[in-house]
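Figure S7 source data.
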Amino acid sequence: MKSIKITAAVIEKTGAPFVLQELEMDGPRADEILVRIVAVGICQTDVHVRDRVQPPELPMVLGHEGSGVVEEVGAAVTAVKPGDRVVLSYDACGQCRFCLSGRYTYCEHAMAINFGGSRLDGTNALHRAGAEVHGHFFGQSSFATYALASERNVVKVSSDLPLELLGPLGCGLQTGAGAVLNSLRVPANASIAILGTGAVGLAAVMAARAAGAHPIIGVDLVPKRLALATELGATHTIDARKEDIRKRIAEITGSGVDYVLEITALPEMLKLAVDILAPCGTAGQIGGGVPGAEAPISMSRLLLGRTVRGIVQGDSIPRIFIPRLIEMHRRGQFPFDRLVRFYDFKEINQAVADSASGDTIKPILRISAA
Ligand SMILES: [Zn+2]
Ligand SMILES: [Zn+2]
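C-alpha cells for the predicted zinc ion complex:
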C-alpha cells in the first residue's frame, strides 16, 4: 500500500508535551478519505487524554477538531471528492442500534472508535520507522498535516468562510450549541444557567440567546471569560470565586432555573446543578469528570420532577448541525470567531498552556494554507 509522509504532534509519554515528528501514513482504504489538514482546534479532551493515556496506546497522535481539503478518496466513498473543503467531527460505527436510530453520539462503540487509538478492527495507518503509532483519534488524529477520515465524520462546507476557522465546529462548538438546541431544546423565555464559560459554555450562551432564553446566567472563575459571556448574550454572570452561586441564582430567578448546563465536570458542580434547578427543570451534564467520579445529588430535590441527563457532542449529527451553525454564524447569531486565537503548528504546547490559563478560549493551530 502506498504510504505518505506526514508531520504530526506525537505524545511519547503520559502528560508529556506534544513533539512534532515525521511519520508515515498508509493511503486511504476503500471507505476512507485522505484530508490535508488546514487547521485544527484544541479541545480540553485532547489535553485530558494526553494526561491520562497509558501504554500500550503510546506513542499516539491526537487532534479532533480538524478542517481541511480532501486530497484523495477510497473507491467506496461517494459523499466527497478531491478538492472539497471539509470539517471533521467525531466518529460512530453507523451499524449499532443507537446509530441506526440516529443517536450517533451514543454509539455502542463510541469509546473504542473515538478513543481506542486505532481503527475499530484494531489496525493503525500511522507508522514510525516500521513501528506502529496509535491514531484514528475521533476518526481523524488531526494534529497532523494529513488525516484519514470517513464518510461518517466529514462534513462538506462552503467556501465563503475561512476554512481555518471552522474546525472547532466539529467538537467543542457543536457540543455547547447542540446541548441547548438539540438536547435540552431550551424554549424562548426559559431560564438557563451555564456552569463553565470556556469554549463549550460560550457556544451554549450564544445558542441560548438565539433560542430566546431569558435569563441566561454564566458562571465561571475567570473574569475575562465572564466578560465575553456578557458580550455574547449572558444576561447575568456569577464569579464563583467571589459570589455564592446558590444565593445569586435565587436572587435572579426566585424558584431556580429551568435548565442548567454543567460543563466543569466537577462532582460538586453537578450537585449544585440539581440544587439550583426549579421544579421540573433539567440539568444537562457534559464531561464525565476524572475516571470513577461520582456526584452526591439530592434525592429529595430530584423527586420534584427534576431531570439530570448526560449529553455527548450536543446530540449533534454533524452533517445536519454544522451547516446549521454556519448559517447561524452568517446571520450574526453564532459569532464563534470571537472565541478563537490562531497559533502556528509548532506552538502547540504554548496554545495548550494559554488555554489552561484562560488566556485563550479556543486555540486553533494553523497547519497548512487553505
Ligand atoms: Zn454505532
Ligand atoms: Zn472535543
